[in-house]
Fold:
Amino acid sequence: MTVAVTVSAEARPRPVYELAQVSKSYGERVVALESVDLVLREGEFHSVIGSSGCGKSTLLKIMAGLTPPSKGRVMLAGTPVLGARADIGMMFQQATLFPWRTTLQNILLPVEVREGRAAAETAAARARILLELVGLKGFEDTYPSQLSGGMAQRAAICRMLISEPNVLLLDEPFSALDEITRDFMNMELQRICRERNASAFLVTHSIAEAVILSDIVHVMSSRPGRIVRSIPIALPRPRTLDMTTLPLFGEYVGVIRGLLDKGAFL
Ligand SMILES: Nc1ncnc2c1ncn2[C@@H]1O[C@H](COP(=O)(O)OP(=O)(O)OP(=O)(O)O)[C@@H](O)[C@H]1O
Ligand SMILES: [Mg+2]
Structure:
Protein backbone atom coordinates (compact mmCIF):
# COMPACT_ATOMS: atom_id res chain seq x y z
CA MET A 1 0.00 0.00 0.00
CA THR A 2 1.33 3.44 -0.84
CA VAL A 3 0.71 6.45 1.30
CA ALA A 4 0.17 9.80 -0.36
CA VAL A 5 2.60 12.30 1.08
CA THR A 6 1.67 15.32 -0.97
CA VAL A 7 0.47 18.24 1.11
CA SER A 8 -2.98 19.29 0.00
CA ALA A 9 -4.00 22.92 -0.17
CA GLU A 10 -6.31 22.35 2.81
CA ALA A 11 -3.36 21.38 5.02
CA ARG A 12 -2.10 24.96 5.01
CA PRO A 13 -3.10 27.10 7.97
CA ARG A 14 -6.31 29.01 7.37
CA PRO A 15 -6.07 32.59 6.12
CA VAL A 16 -6.46 35.27 8.77
CA TYR A 17 -6.13 38.31 6.50
CA GLU A 18 -6.89 38.31 2.80
CA LEU A 19 -6.21 41.51 0.87
CA ALA A 20 -7.18 41.71 -2.79
CA GLN A 21 -6.24 44.63 -5.05
CA VAL A 22 -6.19 47.12 -2.17
CA SER A 23 -5.49 50.71 -3.26
CA LYS A 24 -5.65 53.96 -1.35
CA SER A 25 -5.57 57.55 -2.58
CA TYR A 26 -5.59 60.62 -0.39
CA GLY A 27 -7.29 63.32 -2.43
CA GLU A 28 -6.48 63.47 -6.13
CA ARG A 29 -2.71 63.73 -5.94
CA VAL A 30 -1.44 61.19 -3.40
CA VAL A 31 -1.72 57.52 -4.35
CA ALA A 32 -0.47 55.91 -1.15
CA LEU A 33 -1.10 52.27 -2.03
CA GLU A 34 -1.63 50.46 -5.30
CA SER A 35 -3.06 47.00 -5.92
CA VAL A 36 -1.83 45.25 -2.78
CA ASP A 37 -2.56 41.52 -2.65
CA LEU A 38 -1.54 39.44 0.35
CA VAL A 39 -2.61 36.52 2.49
CA LEU A 40 -1.55 36.25 6.13
CA ARG A 41 -2.24 32.81 7.53
CA GLU A 42 -2.79 31.64 11.07
CA GLY A 43 0.45 31.58 13.06
CA GLU A 44 2.44 33.38 10.36
CA PHE A 45 4.65 36.40 10.86
CA HIS A 46 4.93 38.84 7.96
CA SER A 47 6.89 42.09 7.70
CA VAL A 48 6.64 44.96 5.30
CA ILE A 49 9.67 47.10 4.56
CA GLY A 50 9.97 50.19 2.37
CA SER A 51 11.06 53.80 2.35
CA SER A 52 9.50 56.55 4.44
CA GLY A 53 6.15 57.67 3.04
CA CYS A 54 5.64 54.59 0.82
CA GLY A 55 2.31 53.68 2.44
CA LYS A 56 3.16 51.17 5.19
CA SER A 57 1.17 52.84 7.97
CA THR A 58 -1.68 53.38 5.52
CA LEU A 59 -1.69 49.65 4.77
CA LEU A 60 -1.81 48.80 8.49
CA LYS A 61 -4.61 51.28 9.18
CA ILE A 62 -6.63 49.76 6.33
CA MET A 63 -6.06 46.27 7.76
CA ALA A 64 -7.19 47.49 11.20
CA GLY A 65 -10.33 49.03 9.71
CA LEU A 66 -9.31 52.52 10.82
CA THR A 67 -9.32 53.90 7.30
CA PRO A 68 -11.20 52.46 4.29
CA PRO A 69 -9.40 51.45 1.10
CA SER A 70 -10.27 53.44 -2.04
CA LYS A 71 -10.44 50.17 -3.95
CA GLY A 72 -10.15 46.49 -3.21
CA ARG A 73 -11.21 44.12 -0.47
CA VAL A 74 -9.91 43.29 3.03
CA MET A 75 -11.13 40.16 4.79
CA LEU A 76 -10.29 39.25 8.40
CA ALA A 77 -11.21 35.78 9.66
CA GLY A 78 -13.56 35.36 6.72
CA THR A 79 -15.51 38.60 7.19
CA PRO A 80 -15.00 41.94 5.44
CA VAL A 81 -13.22 44.65 7.44
CA LEU A 82 -15.67 47.54 7.37
CA GLY A 83 -14.68 49.40 10.56
CA ALA A 84 -12.46 49.17 13.65
CA ARG A 85 -12.19 45.56 14.81
CA ALA A 86 -12.00 44.38 18.40
CA ASP A 87 -10.41 41.05 17.43
CA ILE A 88 -6.98 42.51 16.65
CA GLY A 89 -4.21 44.17 18.64
CA MET A 90 -2.67 47.22 17.04
CA MET A 91 0.41 49.15 17.95
CA PHE A 92 0.79 52.55 16.33
CA GLN A 93 3.97 54.27 15.23
CA GLN A 94 3.55 56.75 18.09
CA ALA A 95 2.90 55.29 21.53
CA THR A 96 -0.35 57.32 21.90
CA LEU A 97 -0.65 57.00 25.65
CA PHE A 98 -3.23 59.23 27.34
CA PRO A 99 -1.30 61.82 29.37
CA TRP A 100 -3.86 61.96 32.19
CA ARG A 101 -3.70 58.22 32.87
CA THR A 102 -0.83 56.42 34.61
CA THR A 103 1.13 53.67 32.83
CA LEU A 104 -1.00 50.97 34.47
CA GLN A 105 -4.26 52.80 33.70
CA ASN A 106 -3.19 53.24 30.06
CA ILE A 107 -2.46 49.53 29.72
CA LEU A 108 -5.82 48.59 31.23
CA LEU A 109 -7.76 51.00 29.01
CA PRO A 110 -8.71 48.50 26.25
CA VAL A 111 -10.07 46.09 28.86
CA GLU A 112 -11.98 48.88 30.58
CA VAL A 113 -13.50 50.10 27.32
CA ARG A 114 -14.50 46.64 26.17
CA GLU A 115 -15.43 44.86 29.39
CA GLY A 116 -15.87 47.53 32.08
CA ARG A 117 -14.07 48.71 35.19
CA ALA A 118 -14.39 45.46 37.18
CA ALA A 119 -12.74 43.46 34.38
CA ALA A 120 -9.94 46.03 34.23
CA GLU A 121 -9.32 45.62 37.97
CA THR A 122 -9.07 41.85 37.50
CA ALA A 123 -6.65 42.36 34.60
CA ALA A 124 -4.35 44.59 36.70
CA ALA A 125 -2.33 41.59 37.93
CA ARG A 126 -1.69 40.53 34.32
CA ALA A 127 -0.76 44.10 33.40
CA ARG A 128 1.84 44.15 36.17
CA ILE A 129 3.37 40.91 34.85
CA LEU A 130 3.57 42.42 31.34
CA LEU A 131 5.17 45.58 32.72
CA GLU A 132 7.79 43.52 34.48
CA LEU A 133 8.45 41.58 31.26
CA VAL A 134 9.23 44.79 29.35
CA GLY A 135 11.35 46.23 32.17
CA LEU A 136 8.85 48.79 33.45
CA LYS A 137 8.34 47.41 36.94
CA GLY A 138 8.14 50.37 39.31
CA PHE A 139 6.64 52.68 36.67
CA GLU A 140 3.02 51.53 37.10
CA ASP A 141 1.89 54.84 38.60
CA THR A 142 4.05 57.11 36.44
CA TYR A 143 2.42 59.43 33.89
CA PRO A 144 3.51 59.34 30.21
CA SER A 145 5.22 62.75 30.40
CA GLN A 146 7.70 61.20 32.83
CA LEU A 147 8.55 58.25 30.54
CA SER A 148 11.23 58.22 27.83
CA GLY A 149 10.15 57.50 24.23
CA GLY A 150 11.32 53.89 24.47
CA MET A 151 9.56 53.39 27.81
CA ALA A 152 6.32 54.75 26.35
CA GLN A 153 6.67 52.32 23.43
CA ARG A 154 7.16 49.44 25.85
CA ALA A 155 4.03 50.51 27.76
CA ALA A 156 2.13 50.59 24.45
CA ILE A 157 3.28 47.01 23.75
CA CYS A 158 1.77 45.95 27.10
CA ARG A 159 -1.46 47.75 26.21
CA MET A 160 -1.62 45.80 22.95
CA LEU A 161 -0.93 42.46 24.65
CA ILE A 162 -3.33 42.86 27.60
CA SER A 163 -6.33 41.73 25.53
CA GLU A 164 -4.39 38.66 24.32
CA PRO A 165 -5.20 39.26 20.64
CA ASN A 166 -4.57 36.52 18.09
CA VAL A 167 -3.74 39.02 15.37
CA LEU A 168 -1.08 41.68 15.94
CA LEU A 169 -0.61 44.70 13.67
CA LEU A 170 2.64 46.44 14.57
CA ASP A 171 3.80 49.77 13.18
CA GLU A 172 7.52 50.11 13.97
CA PRO A 173 6.87 49.07 17.57
CA PHE A 174 10.50 49.05 18.65
CA SER A 175 11.90 52.03 16.75
CA ALA A 176 12.62 54.04 19.91
CA LEU A 177 14.43 51.22 21.71
CA ASP A 178 18.18 50.72 21.98
CA GLU A 179 19.53 47.75 20.02
CA ILE A 180 19.91 45.36 22.97
CA THR A 181 16.39 46.03 24.28
CA ARG A 182 15.05 45.83 20.76
CA ASP A 183 16.63 42.40 20.19
CA PHE A 184 15.16 41.22 23.49
CA MET A 185 11.70 42.56 22.63
CA ASN A 186 11.84 40.94 19.21
CA MET A 187 12.56 37.55 20.74
CA GLU A 188 9.75 38.10 23.26
CA LEU A 189 7.42 39.02 20.42
CA GLN A 190 8.33 35.77 18.68
CA ARG A 191 7.70 33.79 21.88
CA ILE A 192 4.30 35.43 22.46
CA CYS A 193 3.24 34.76 18.87
CA ARG A 194 4.37 31.11 19.02
CA GLU A 195 2.70 30.42 22.35
CA ARG A 196 -0.62 31.77 21.12
CA ASN A 197 -0.24 30.71 17.47
CA ALA A 198 -0.92 34.38 16.78
CA SER A 199 -0.49 35.99 13.37
CA ALA A 200 1.53 39.18 13.11
CA PHE A 201 2.07 41.87 10.51
CA LEU A 202 5.01 44.15 11.25
CA VAL A 203 6.06 47.43 9.64
CA THR A 204 9.79 48.01 10.05
CA HIS A 205 12.70 49.93 8.58
CA SER A 206 15.19 47.32 9.74
CA ILE A 207 16.06 44.64 7.19
CA ALA A 208 17.69 42.47 9.88
CA GLU A 209 14.62 42.70 12.12
CA ALA A 210 12.32 41.78 9.23
CA VAL A 211 14.44 38.74 8.31
CA ILE A 212 14.95 37.37 11.82
CA LEU A 213 11.25 37.59 12.71
CA SER A 214 9.39 36.80 9.52
CA ASP A 215 8.06 33.91 7.51
CA ILE A 216 7.56 36.35 4.64
CA VAL A 217 9.09 39.81 4.05
CA HIS A 218 7.12 42.08 1.69
CA VAL A 219 9.28 44.72 0.02
CA MET A 220 7.39 47.87 -0.98
CA SER A 221 8.19 50.42 -3.68
CA SER A 222 7.95 54.11 -2.95
CA ARG A 223 4.78 56.00 -3.85
CA PRO A 224 2.54 54.62 -5.04
CA GLY A 225 3.30 51.83 -2.56
CA ARG A 226 3.23 48.45 -4.26
CA ILE A 227 4.56 45.13 -3.01
CA VAL A 228 7.45 44.49 -5.41
CA ARG A 229 8.53 41.14 -3.93
CA SER A 230 7.35 38.84 -1.15
CA ILE A 231 10.31 36.83 0.09
CA PRO A 232 9.77 33.63 2.11
CA ILE A 233 12.39 33.28 4.86
CA ALA A 234 13.41 29.65 5.27
CA LEU A 235 15.42 29.99 8.50
CA PRO A 236 14.32 27.37 11.06
CA ARG A 237 12.09 28.21 14.00
CA PRO A 238 12.36 29.21 16.74
CA ARG A 239 14.66 31.94 15.53
CA THR A 240 17.60 32.94 17.70
CA LEU A 241 19.75 36.04 17.60
CA ASP A 242 22.85 34.06 16.68
CA MET A 243 21.16 33.14 13.39
CA THR A 244 22.08 36.64 12.25
CA THR A 245 25.61 35.30 11.70
CA LEU A 246 24.47 32.53 9.30
CA PRO A 247 25.37 32.89 5.61
CA LEU A 248 21.69 32.30 4.70
CA PHE A 249 20.66 35.23 6.90
CA GLY A 250 23.22 37.41 5.13
CA GLU A 251 21.89 36.30 1.75
CA TYR A 252 18.34 37.37 2.62
CA VAL A 253 19.57 40.72 3.90
CA GLY A 254 21.56 41.18 0.66
CA VAL A 255 18.58 40.36 -1.57
CA ILE A 256 16.27 42.78 0.28
CA ARG A 257 18.89 45.52 0.38
CA GLY A 258 19.44 45.05 -3.36
CA LEU A 259 15.72 45.42 -4.07
CA LEU A 260 15.50 48.55 -1.95
CA ASP A 261 18.62 50.02 -3.57
CA LYS A 262 17.29 49.22 -7.04
CA GLY A 263 14.25 51.36 -6.77
CA ALA A 264 11.96 50.30 -4.04
CA PHE A 265 13.60 53.07 -2.02
CA LEU A 266 13.73 55.71 -4.77
N1 LIG B 1 -4.54 61.12 6.46
C1 LIG B 1 -3.81 61.44 5.39
N2 LIG B 1 -4.18 62.41 4.53
C2 LIG B 1 -3.47 62.70 3.43
N3 LIG B 1 -2.33 62.07 3.08
C3 LIG B 1 -1.89 61.10 3.90
C4 LIG B 1 -2.59 60.73 5.11
N4 LIG B 1 -1.91 59.72 5.71
C5 LIG B 1 -0.85 59.48 4.93
N5 LIG B 1 -0.83 60.29 3.86
C6 LIG B 1 0.17 60.29 2.75
O1 LIG B 1 0.24 58.97 2.24
C7 LIG B 1 1.59 58.59 1.99
C8 LIG B 1 1.93 57.34 2.77
O2 LIG B 1 1.93 57.63 4.17
P1 LIG B 1 2.20 56.52 5.28
O3 LIG B 1 2.03 57.15 6.61
O4 LIG B 1 1.38 55.33 4.98
O5 LIG B 1 3.74 56.18 4.99
P2 LIG B 1 4.76 55.20 5.74
O6 LIG B 1 5.24 54.22 4.73
O7 LIG B 1 4.13 54.64 6.95
O8 LIG B 1 5.97 56.19 6.11
P3 LIG B 1 6.97 56.18 7.39
O9 LIG B 1 7.97 55.09 7.11
O10 LIG B 1 7.60 57.54 7.32
O11 LIG B 1 6.16 55.96 8.60
C9 LIG B 1 2.44 59.81 2.33
O12 LIG B 1 2.68 60.51 1.14
C10 LIG B 1 1.57 60.64 3.25
O13 LIG B 1 1.82 62.01 3.05
MG1 LIG C 1 4.51 54.91 8.97
The mean pLDDT is 91.
